[in-house]
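Narrative progress, year one. The postdoctoral researcher (J.K.) led the effort to move from monomer predictions toward full complexes, under supervision of the PI. The following entry was the first complex the group processed end to end, covering 432 residues in total.
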Amino acid sequence: MFNNKIEALVNLYTVDNGELKILLFKKMDDPFKGYWMLPSNLMINKETIEECAEATISEKLGVNDVYTEPGIITTQIDRIPDTRIVGISMIAIIDTVKLNLNIEESEEYEWFNVDNIPKTIYDHGEIIKKTTDLFKTKLLNTKYLRKFFPSDFTMPELQKLFEQLLGKEIDRRNFRKKLLSLDIIENTNEKNVSMSGRPATLYSFKETDDKNVYYE
Amino acid sequence: MFNNKIEALVNLYTVDNGELKILLFKKMDDPFKGYWMLPSNLMINKETIEECAEATISEKLGVNDVYTEPGIITTQIDRIPDTRIVGISMIAIIDTVKLNLNIEESEEYEWFNVDNIPKTIYDHGEIIKKTTDLFKTKLLNTKYLRKFFPSDFTMPELQKLFEQLLGKEIDRRNFRKKLLSLDIIENTNEKNVSMSGRPATLYSFKETDDKNVYYE
DNA sequence: CCAAAAGTGTTTTCAGTACACCCATGC
DNA sequence: GCATGGGTGTACTGAAAACACTTTTGG
């Protein structure tokens, strides 16, 4: 009567060329064959929900030490037919460096832009939407930005991410001015290798207190 | 192995004379006799966490139709000795009108200013702090303010609440100017009965889209 | 008439916005 | 040398902050 199954639904995010993306797996068998899903696992008695999420990532991708934290919770009785499972969505962040080192191409998973989610099993689509909305507001804070950019980044890259988060275009000069005025980043005096055009300067986050870059 | 007990830890808030307060109950027996606690109940299989929280409030105070939503989640294995219970803190909001109609004085409970929480059982103190921090940021939005003030309120009352939320003093004239400029409230042309001094004008929230009053 | 709290307008300051031209690289 | 994307400075605008005196009530 009081015992419940709890599943961690892992929303694993990365920033790829200034785009916020989430990792989804393809369901290879019926029901819902061809639909997409969040990697998930039932939480066992002797672990925390964070441990459960980290184990799921490790199992699916072979990557360890990924930051996770709880997102939203769903206790709808009938969210999955014929069984009662409490869902806890987990926000997880991985940077492109770790990604490139450890992840190979696969038929079974794909990184999707968070604003372009394919059809999913059960309520995963709704969970992704709610969790991503929550995460987008958190992501305006350097605490989370740091995790995507543990080493360095370019201004145009970061600007592109903010344009997606805020859903509007930002003037290049004003964005740069604002970021520098906050005194949270520093010039590394390095340049990236660009596809074409002038190479961009690389910046990194200073080791200061975290603050929000934008509101609203 | 996969079955867990889940408890709803109800953080019931009200605004009393511009002060944000939370309801706590006194533990009347050992262990932790004399310590304070959040009202809570284990969630049963056939209810949602919201229903569990609402039932808890109904049981303790005899008040129904109270708005609730999930706050934070704790899955620490040893948060309660010798047993594993997953804790979900629930934000619940009650207005002073409902309060006065239904609640009588009691030895067993008390409304505490959220910035002055007494000693609590287990991890309740930490849960209150985290949930209240979360709620304070939400409370800058009229969606939640409305629930505290379903009928009307005075400017000084609302200003006092904002001063607590933001942790700083606000100029009376500037606060008034800002609130009126947002076009979210209207003058009811009524006055309240004051303790002493000039009676304050009563305002109410317009039926418009919700927005944030302040950031940061 | 005195104490207590509410109400009101103007100036200053600073952050946000708008805007156009030059620079470094690859091909 | 040209296409591509990166880097820079200034003027305008509007919201936030600073600030002091008057009004209404109860006792």
